[in-house]
Specification:
The complex is a heterodimer of chains A (551) and B (164).
Chain A lengths: L5 H22 L5 H9 L3 E3 L4 E5 L5 E3 H14 L3 E4 L5 E3 L7 H10 L16 E2 L14 H11 L14 E4 L13 E7 L5 E7 L11 E8 L3 H15 L10 H8 L1 H15 L8 H10 L13 H9 L1 H10 E3 L5 E6 L10 E3 H14 L3 E4 L5 E7 L3 H10 L14 E2 L14 H10 L3 H7 L4 E4 L13 E8 L2 E8 L11 E2 L4 E2 L3 H15 L6 H8 L2 H9 L2
Parallel strand pairs in A: 6-7, 7-8, 16-17, 17-18
Antiparallel strand pairs in A: 1-2, 2-5, 3-14, 4-5, 4-13, 8-9, 9-10, 11-12, 12-15, 14-15, 18-19, 19-20, 19-21
Chain B lengths: L2 E3 L2 E2 L5 E2 L10 E4 H6 L1 H6 L4 E5 L17 E6 L6 H12 L5 E6 L6 H7 L3 E3 L3 H5 L1 H6 L15 H10 L1
The complex binds protoporphyrin IX containing FE and iron/sulfur cluster (SF4).
Protoporphyrin IX containing FE binds next to loops of chain A.
């Protein structure tokens, strides 16, 4: 893992001190709320319906157990004993007091963490594949580059007042677990014909009210040019991005309005002027950062572990959990464990201080001291020996963390919706809870298999409904909550925006509708077909027939 | 509005050229005035300054920049950050060495970003920015981005340390 050196440590300390000064000036009335707002937003502090909310960065979703313990103690000391893991691999606290925030930031700095640029119209915390460094399909560990970008983007003097927030995601593997086609900039590590490693650069993807799949503007960017190329894109956007309309300010709209080809030319022209300059990344610098992400010393193990196999054979519950929550690791005898934060009937992504401590302890003892946060709001123990899986599972299960539903129907993303958000048309979390109750039979969920349901309470799309295999969008019909359903969305390497199926359903009917869609899929699916495969083959008609015939 | 330079409040020797007035002394003209009256203004025997709105890119007048001793870039709102890019382009690409002035809604907590992008004078909104200057310049000393301001980045310092 990356460790701060003297420079990073001084930077974060200075930044906390600076923010402490800003809070003091606010509390003393020297700064109005209007003047304070952009300053607090640059430190992840939002003012919500009921209170302040603090969003803490988990750079590229990687945490040590010491860091997780700190997150737990902050939840206990400054919040109500909970934290909420987000779709951008961060953690949010919903009840901090303004005067406590500088102290919280000081505590975070002790474990090399901060809240810088988790909000505001700047370059946000860079996200990465949650299996980075462990995945079998990886070309290179994307966190090396995410860390380089983190440093370059920290308080960038030119790009701290962009037209809108700016999100960058990076994946090191061909199987995209970081949704790189739905970010302002997506980077995909690629190997060219000469065997060199670089990046495919994708620009202008996003969700929100105008979902757009990003466009590749460069098929291969050699590593040393990473920062100059990013600076060129940001410079074009900072000058030309729209500032007259909040909903047209993202780079995706600029790319659409100028045309992808013209946009690419603008970037390439700018880049020609600055490449091979001060932003050039020498190989030694990349190696220096790479050294921090050197794989842990894995033991040499057999890929086949009889004790593990035997347990799996004997214990159906364990076997079921392994099937959904355990993924292949690059080292023989190891596996990646995904911890579900979606138990039946709970708000997706919430974890209590006690649960964070349990995860921290498991990570320290049994996962090379590493934890990851996923963009689907779960946690990961990336390096667990097969022979330790049973112990991990038992401990998780004893603490409400053993739900075997990763990637299944009840592993939903749902935005806060009407219960917490003043922009909402409709409730989201209660719909998610009712769906997970309807499919509470885990055996059935496993039969259905891989299925992503995503729910947003309005068109801002915080719940990513556009990229759900089944997407649910809350709409307002004459003051009543209704839900529009889309099918066929996907955030991975087969990026697609879901298509609207037909008229929306009432709050009472929406769960029946989802069940009908799932039943149609089960009736029609061919061997090994996942939901989107079947949908692509048969189209919307059979789903509609069954769904609307009844009505 | 106080004018800050090197942390001191100084008297402003410049005046904005009024509509249809003849230029006298050090005058700042708008882009529209410059475009309408380029030849007359060029011949003016005092110093010339140019004031650009946040949607007026200096790239459009790269060839004229040598005539100006001052360029003032507007920040109409805290959140409108276009002029940070313009400033860097002026300094780092077009080699502008005159006074680069930030005008409009210029607040204490933006000053350091502005300095790093190449501004050297500031028409600040109020005295808070004047009082806060010293602190604003020194509160964050670790810099991760090379700009044209000559300051050492963490990257350069690390390499320096490694080569020692
Ligand atoms: C009170 C709560 C919230 C409010 C008022 C809110 C508001 C918004 C608004 C206005 C947008 C549209 C921004 C744009 O189009 O540029 C947006 C987008 C988004 N929000 Fe939220 N949000 C809330 C909570 C959340 C939560 C809890 C999450 C994650 C768990 C979240 C994740 C996102 C994401 C991922 C986007 C996607 C748009 C994109 O990046 O393309 N939001 N939100
Ligand atoms: S999608 Fe709409 S309802 Fe849901 S959190 Fe975002 S803004 Fe609120």
């Amino acid at each position: 893992m990356y460790r701060y050196d003297e420079f990073d440590a001084a930077f974060v300390r200075q930044r906390v001190k600076q923010f402490r000064g800003q809070v003091e000036r606010r509390l003393a009335g020297e700064l109005s709320e209007d003047e304070f707002k952009p300053l607090r937003l640059m430190n992840g502090l939002y003012l919500q319906l009921h209170a302040y909310m603090l969003r803490v960065a988990v750079p590229y979703g990687t945490l040590s157990s010491r860091q997780m313990l700190k997150l737990a103690s902050i939840a206990r000391d400054y919040d109500r004993g909970y934290g909420h893991f987000t779709t951008r691999q961060n953690i949010q606290y919903n009840w901090p007091q303004l005067q406590d925030v500088p102290d919280i930031l000081d505590e975070l700095a002790e474990v090399e963490m901060h809240a810088i640029q988790t909000s505001g119209n700047c370059i946000r915390n860079v996200t990465a594949d949650h299996f980075a460094g462990a995945a079998a399909d990886e070309i290179e560990d994307p966190r090396i580059y995410a860390e380089i970008i983190r440093q370059w983007s920290s308080l960038h003097p030119e790009f701290s007042f962009l037209p809108r927030k700016f999100k960058i995601a990076i994946t090191g593997a061909p199987n995209d677990r970081a949704a790189v086609r739905f970010h302002d900039i997506g980077l995909q590590v690629r190997r060219n014909e000469a065997g060199e490693v670089g990046f495919e650069v994708i620009v202008g993807g996003g969700l929100g009210r105008t979902p757009v799949i990003g466009t590749t503007i460069r098929k291969f960017l050699p590593k040393q040019h990473l920062l100059s190329y990013l600076e060129a894109i940001l410079r074009v956007y900072n000058q030309l991005g729209r500032r007259d309309n909040l909903y047209k300010a993202r780079i995706k709209i600029l790319v659409q309005q100028t045309g992808a080809e013209t946009f690419k030319d603008l970037v390439e022209d700018e880049w020609q002027q600055i490449k091979d300059g001060a932003l050039d990344l020498p190989a030694e610098e990349i190696e220096r950062i790479e050294a921090y992400f050197a794989p842990p010393a894995f033991e040499t193990l057999e890929a086949n572990q009889p004790a593990f196999e035997a347990r799996r054979f004997e214990d159906r519950d364990f076997a079921r959990w392994v099937r959904s929550n355990v993924t292949a690791h690059k080292a023989p005898g190891y596996a990646c464990v995904t911890i579900s934060l979606k138990p039946e009937g709970e708000a997706p992504g919430d974890a209590s201080a006690e649960q964070m401590e349990v995860v921290a302890d498991l990570a320290e003892r049994l996962s090379c001291d590493e934890i990851r946060v996923t963009h689907e709001q779960n946690l990961v123990l990336p390096h667990v020996k097969l022979t330790d899986l049973a112990e991990v599972w038992e401990t998780l299960a004893a603490n409400g963390l053993g739900t075997p539903n990763v990637g299944l129907v009840s592993d939903m993303i749902a935005c806060p919706g009407l219960d917490y958000c003043n922009l909402a048309n409709a409730r989201s979390i209660p719909v998610a809870q009712r769906i997970s109750q309807r499919f509470s039979d885990l055996k059935k969920q496993h039969e259905i298999g891989d299925l992503k349901i995503k729910i947003s309470g309005c068109i801002n799309a915080c719940g990513h409904h556009h990229v759900g295999h089944i997407g649910i969008l809350g709409v307002d019909k004459k003051g009543e909550e209704f839900y529009q359903i889309t099918l066929g969305g996907s955030a991975d390497e087969n990026a697609a925006v879901g298509k609207i199926l037909g008229p929306a359903f009432s709050y009472d009917d929406v769960v029946d509708a989802i069940e009908s869609i799932v039943d149609t899929y089960l009736e029609l699916r061919g061997d090994g077909e996942r939901f989107n495969d079947t949908y692509a083959r048969v189209g919307a008609a059979p789903f509609k027939e069954k769904l609307y015939a009844a009505a | 509005m106080p004018l800050l330079k090197n942390g001191q409040v100084i008297a402003d020797s410049w005046t904005a050229l009024a509509e249809d007035a003849a230029p006298e002394g050090d005058v700042i003209v708008s882009l529209e005035q410059w475009q309408a009256d380029r030849e007359t203004l060029r011949a003016h025997n005092g110093r010339l300054g140019l004031r650009l709105k946040s949607d007026q890119s200096p790239a459009e007048l790269a060839d004229d920049l040598g005539r100006f001793d001052l360029i003032a870039l507007e920040f109409p709102r805290f959140g409108d950050g276009r002029a940070y890019s313009y400033a860097r382009l002026l300094r780092e690409r077009y080699g502008f060495t005159g006074e680069l002035r930030a005008v409009g809604n210029v607040l204490r907590d933006q000053l350091f970003f502005m300095v790093r992008c190449g501004f050297d004078s500031f028409e600040v909104a109020d005295d808070k920015a004047v009082a806060g200057w010293q602190e604003a310049m020194s509160e964050v000393s670790v810099l991760y981005q090379p700009t044209g301001d000559g300051r050492q980045t963490a990257f350069a310092l690390r390499r320096g340390a490694a080569n020692r």
